[in-house]
Every structure is written in C-alpha cells, then in structure tokens.
Amino acid sequence: MVSKTLAFPDVMFNIHIGIIHFNRLLLSTGTKEGKSPIFKAHTLNRKGAVKLRNIDYAEKHGYIKGVVKEILHDPGRGAPVAKVQFLNAYRYKRDNELMLATEGMYTGQYIYCGKKATLTVGNVLPISSVPEGTIVCNVEAKVGDRGAFARGSGTFAVVVSHDEDKGTSRLRLPSGGKKTVPSGVRAQIGIVAGGGRTDKPLLKAGNAYHKYSVKRNCWPKIRGVAKNPVEHPHGGGNHQHIGMPSTCGRERPSGRKCGLIAARRTGRLRGVKKTGQDKD
C-alpha cells in the first residue's frame, strides 16, 4: 500500500489509495477573511486624470501649440475627453495631455496654451488675460493646480470682474455662487461638451444600474427607515418613521451621523433662486 503525506499551510492530510483523511484543520475564529470590494472605485477602462498642462515658462511668458489627436469617452464621466499632443520643450518627444473637450472642439484642431494665446474656444489662458463676461471652464482654484471648477458636462463659469489692485478676479460658478480667485489662474475658454445629458430621463432601473456600475457602489440607496434598528439609527418601529429629528450635528460619531448633516435650513426651496445681478 502506497502512502503519501501532503502538507499545506493550514491543512495536513494523508492520501491512502484515493481516500483523504484530514489530520488537522486550523480554523480562524472571529476574524474577517479578505477584504470587501464594495468600497473600491470602478476604474476599469478609465482614460486617466483630466487636467491642464503643467505650468511652465512657455505658458507664463508666451504660448505653446498642441493638436487634438482624439476625442474619447471616459467611463463614469459625463463629459468627453480630448487627447491633446504637445511638443516637449526640452527633449525630443511628444507629450500627451488629457483635457476636457469644450463644445465645438474637433480632431485636428490646434490648441494654444499660454498668456499670449488668442481668445478662442478650447484655448487655455490666465484669467487676467480674459475680458469680463467671458465664459470659461476647467478653472484653477490656485495657480498651477491644473483645474478645479466647472468641469462637469455642460457646465461653465463666467468671469464677473477683475481687481487689479489686489490681483484677484471674481467668477460666477455653475452653482450660482461667486468665487474670488487669483488672476494668475488658468482656464479653458468655452463650455464643457456633453451638455443636456440629464434632460433625457433614465426611464428604467436597468439604465440607472449601468450608469452607476461604472462610477462606484452608490446605487440603489436604501432608506434608513426601511432598515432594522441594528443597521441604521432611523430603522425599526411598527411604522416607517424617523422618530427623531432628521437633522444631525457635524460632530456626531460616525454611526449616528445620518440624515441632514449640519443643516442650516430644512424644507422645500420656495421662490426663485437669486443668482442674477451683481452688486460689484
């Protein structure tokens, strides 16, 4: 009779003519095996971070020319992405940048970035070189951060005014709020492409499933009152009711922090939102 003993990290067993005898099995009790994938971002097939060029000497004092090689769809992003190719100023090579596609951009178009670039849709200029009332997008918050405001599909910001004494400029953001930024920050001219995307209704749950499956695990959302008391502070009870104020302080512990967090006001928004005339 042939006997063979095999050793594995947590299992030892003998094999006698096809019969497996388990000698010992080490079981871990009370610990979670592995990690859950539900908090991971869904990054398959994503094209990369969409940013302006790294600011350099050419952009600060003149301009640099690039060409739009391709307009791409980025999974999980509503706006199309433009692949722009620039000549490297210091080495014999080409640099590919992913930038937001503005309305009217096409493949083969020349893009100019810098202080002395012309005021044309798709070009990148400092806010100080842009007249008041210009529509811009992908605006930097600080000089050199490569884009922070007005980056969603169909969004844009408006240059309201310049304060030359302080070296700042005032913008109206897509939310309707005003923002003061340094005049040296850069922005793309025009409106982000892909506008009107939300006008068409999703119509069915299957479309919502595919929409969010390429973004992150945030759909469907189960209401707190529909859960059990061990799962949510609003759960339980013979009727689905919150049973406590729906507002919650900002400093509450993480298990209790749910509902309307640090709400300044509650209820419906009544009346017209006043975003119009500027006092300055």
How would you describe this protein?
The structure is a single chain. The protein is mainly beta and 280 residues long. Helices cover 5% and strands 27% of the residues. The chain has two helices and 15 strands. The chain has helices spanning 57-61, 205-213, and strands at residues 3-7, 11-16, 19-25, 64-72, 81-87, 94-100, 110-113, 124-126, 135-137, 157-163, 168-172, 178-182, 186-189, 247-248, 260-261. Strands 8-13-9-10-11-12 form a six-stranded antiparallel beta sheet, with no helix packed on it. It has a four-stranded antiparallel beta sheet with strand order 6-5-4-7, with no helix packed on it. The longest helix is centred in the C-terminal third of the chain and has 9 residues, at 205-213. The protein is globular, with a radius of gyration of 28 Å. The chain starts with a strand and ends in a 19-residue tail after the last strand.
Write the layout of secondary structure elements.
Blueprint lengths: L2 E5 L3 E6 L2 E7 L31 H5 L2 E9 L8 E7 L6 E7 L9 E4 L10 E3 L8 E3 L19 E7 L4 E5 L5 E5 L3 E4 L15 H9 L33 E2 L11 E2 L19
Parallel strand pairs: 14-15
Antiparallel strand pairs: 1-2, 2-3, 4-5, 4-7, 5-6, 8-13, 9-10, 9-13, 10-11, 11-12
Short description:
This protein has 280 residues and is mainly β. Helix content is 5%, strand content 27%.
Q: How many runs of DSSP E, i.e. beta strands? A: 15
What is the strand content?
25-35%
Quaternary structure annotation: single chain
- Separation of termini? 97 Å
Note the run of SSEs as H and E: EEEHEEEEEEEEEEHEE
Summarize model confidence as the mean pLDDT. Answer: 89
Q: Share of helix among residues?
A: under 10%
Biggest sheet, in brief? 6 strands, antiparallel
Task: Flag low-confidence runs.
Answer: 8-22
Question: What is the structural class?
Answer: mainly beta
Number of helices: 2
Shape: globular
* Radius of gyration, whole Å: 28 Å
- Which strand order do you get reading across the main beta sheet? 8-13-9-10-11-12
